[in-house]
Amino acid sequence: MRLLLALLLTALALVTACGDDQPANPALRAELLRMFKEDQEVRTLDAAQEDWARVERANTERTRQILDRHGWPGYALVGEDGAHAAWLLVQHADRDLDLQRRGLDLMRRAVEEGDADPSDLAYLVDRVRVAEGRPQVYGTQWETDPQGAWRPRTPIEDAANVDERRADSGLKPLREYLEELRSAQ
């Protein structure tokens, strides 16, 4: 629960900081931030499973519409916090792998153009690969076993070089990430 609280606080800090540049579509930014907030609230406030499913379905459908109309909502369109919110909504659309794959393709292009965060992309790459039953690239997707020990949800591809890939994406070394997971338990 402490991990969820820490993630929520970090997310809320990102939501409140848009940066100096005004996004091209402030209304879309505000909508993404609202959806982001609702997603985080339902995940961290012990909401009923049906509430969680309702929010996820609504957010997934609206995210699909946003991608259809705008492509990836990157920094220029919705600001850094809006782009991060869009990533989280795609990341959490676990009941719609096709949407996650589509978001991954769009986000990959946005990162190449400097319009999205490479560390967010790394998480989405792993999320999709785990859903497909494939090894992770960056080691971002973990779970606890029945004894409470952390383990990767799927193996990490070329684990000996994972920290190099993580650094290239702006992520801290895997050892530090695992220390954070353990300390938040």
From TrEMBL:
Keyword Signal: yes
PROSITE patterns to which the protein is assigned, alphabetical: PROKAR_LIPOPROTEIN
Stretches the record annotates as Disordered: 140-169
Xref: InterPro entries: DUF6624 (IPR046732)
A Pfam family annotated for this UniProt entry: DUF6624
Keywords: Signal
Leader sequence segment: 1-19
Protein name: Lipoprotein
Source organism phylogeny: Bacteria, Bacillati, Actinomycetota, Actinomycetes, Streptosporangiales
